[in-house]
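Milestone 3.1: sequence recovery, worked example.
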């Protein structure tokens, strides 16, 4: 039984890296002033952040066109028996639910395409792809992989420290008054993603306090929320960022020192879908189960 993995550009793999791994990337559209762009095709990360930081520019993300997704599936199914489709969390985009519905209701895809919603994004989504590739090598079917990734969907968490409230205000996730007060008081919010939406976790005054708060949050997750997987050596930790690689490298060393008994996996840019809402200069730490 041959299985092909298709994920989206939110997982962090480039098209070139995906080709080397034998998987495919469904690009996520970025809408800039009503014009559609695709990362790597006609938009670099540097260009994205340039647009994002321009006050006169409107930047948002959109769903892949279901027709394009279906055409990709038809092409792949000429050479493979099954497809495991792995988009970002339905809590951050309706893509997962839209595509899942198509896979489960269109006769040509039923039993051949398994569209997953395991509530992941960025580095946690990437770990899911790695786990799926391992299971394919073991000879597991798309359904078996789908079942495991669904069962472990909530065994992950991400904490993100923002450098500014500007982009939460810009995206409508924070009122202008709250943003103004936060900026005046120099408050640095720490957000969390526990499988679903981007939510508030804590408020601190200094960047160092934000890093400490995130590390303490991960420690609590490992020792309490994910204790069984942690004791079994099945948890990993990773770092992500929005256009601040130097700070991310420094934070990665701090995270490694805090959790010497946990495998450190990635230090990657956060997905553009998340960056739209939080802006540049954000640091994140995550913990996620591994197969």
């Amino acid at each position: 039984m041959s299985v092909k993995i298709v994920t989206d550009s939110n997982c962090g793999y480039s098209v070139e890296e995906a080709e080397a791994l034998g998987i495919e990337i469904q690009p996520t559209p970025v809408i800039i002033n009503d014009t559609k762009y695709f990362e790597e095709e006609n938009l670099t990360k540097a260009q994205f952040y340039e647009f994002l930081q321009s006050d006169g520019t409107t930047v948002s993300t959109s769903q892949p066109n279901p027709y394009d997704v279906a055409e990709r599936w038809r092409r792949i199914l000429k050479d493979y028996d099954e497809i495991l489709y792995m988009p970002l969390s339905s809590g951050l985009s309706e893509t997962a639910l839209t595509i899942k519905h198509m896979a489960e209701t269109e006769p040509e895809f039923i039993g051949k395409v398994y569209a997953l919603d395991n509530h992941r994004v960025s580095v946690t989504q990437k770990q899911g792809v790695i786990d799926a590739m391992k299971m394919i090598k073991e000879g597991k079917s798309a359904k078996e992989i789908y079942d495991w990734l669904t069962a472990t969907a909530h065994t992950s968490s991400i904490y993100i420290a923002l450098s500014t409230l500007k982009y939460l205000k810009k995206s409508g996730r924070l009122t202008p008054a709250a943003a103004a007060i936060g900026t005046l008081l120099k408050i640095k919010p720490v957000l969390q993603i526990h499988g679903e939406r981007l939510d508030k976790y804590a408020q601190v005054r200094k960047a160092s306090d934000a890093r400490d708060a995130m590390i303490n949050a991960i420690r609590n997750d490992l020792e309490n929320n994910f204790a069984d997987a942690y004791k079994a050596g099945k948890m990993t930790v990773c770092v992500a960022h929005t256009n601040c690689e130097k700070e991310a490298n420094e934070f990665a060393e701090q995270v490694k020192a805090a959790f010497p008994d946990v495998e450190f996996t990635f230090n990657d840019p956060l997905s553009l879908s998340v960056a739209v809402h939080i802006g540049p200069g954000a640091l994140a730490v995550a913990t996620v189960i591994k197969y």
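DSSP finds twelve helices and 13 strands in the chain. The mean pLDDT is 89.
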